[in-house]
Amino acid sequence: MIVLASQSPRRRELLANAGIACVVRPADIEEKPLEGEPPQDYVQRLARHKAQAVQAAAEEFILAADTTVAVDGLILEKPHTPAEAERMLRLLHGRDHLVLTGVCLRRQDNYWTAVEETRVWFIPLREDEITAYARSGEPLDKAGGYAIQGLASRFVEKIEGCYFNVVGLPVSRVYRMLRAAGYSFTEG
């Protein structure tokens, strides 16, 4: 059995769409970067801490992930207000940025970790577009202040890498990690 250490409905849906059954047991940890911590290290650390925070039976696989957006080494987490979302969108528009997801798979005392990187390019945005999108409410629970699968899809010029990573979970990477860890997909 796979235990998803996340409350994210997007992660749960991505796994279900790929035929990967799971139960949800969210991890409750503080999500804050350490002083000077690179974005790649940050998402990997959080994913591992989430995997460690969830209790599991011996036969269960714990799957934890953390996604963030980085531009010029600056970590853009989830905005809490439309004003924070506007600030993030002004940093992203008309240029590229990285979406990073740290993934940790744990079974008992064994850990498999990875960081998936996807480069995303935004078109230049007008100020009224930034304001309208920020006020739509969509950015408020999304890393970097946007949802590629939602209204912000119109801002994305191109991506390089895994689309599902930008949604919140690099499904193919997770599948390969589960296979490498010996998970049996026939037993669910």
Could you characterize what this model shows?
With 188 residues, the chain is of the alpha/beta class. The protein has a single domain (2-180), classed as Maf protein (Alpha-Beta Complex). Helices cover 31% and strands 26% of the residues. It has helices at residues 9-17, 39-53, 82-92, 127-135, 163-167, 171-180; strands spanning 2-4, 23-24, 61-71, 74-76, 96-107, 110-122, 156-160. Strands 1, 2, 3, 4, 5, 6 and 7 form a 7-stranded mixed beta sheet that branches. A hairpin with a 2-residue loop joins strand 3 (61-71) and strand 4 (74-76). Helix 3 (82-92) packs across helix 4. The longest helix is centred in the N-terminal third of the chain and has 15 residues, at 39-53. The model has no long low-confidence stretch (mean pLDDT 95).
Compute the number of structural domains: 1
How many DSSP E strands? 7
The backbone outline, from C-alpha atoms, is elongated
- Alpha-carbon Rg, integer: 17 Å
Q: End-to-end span in angstroms?
A: 6 Å
What is the fold-level CATH name, i.e. the topology? Maf protein
Q: What can be said about the biggest beta sheet? A: 7 strands, mixed
Range of helix content: 25-40%
CATH architecture: Alpha-Beta Complex
The CATH class label is Alpha Beta
Averaging pLDDT over every residue, what do you get? 95
Which spans have pLDDT < 50 for at least 5 consecutive residues?
none
Put simply, the count of helices is 6
Order of secondary-structure elements: EHEHEEHEEHEHH
Portion in beta strands:
25-35%
**Structural category:** alpha/beta
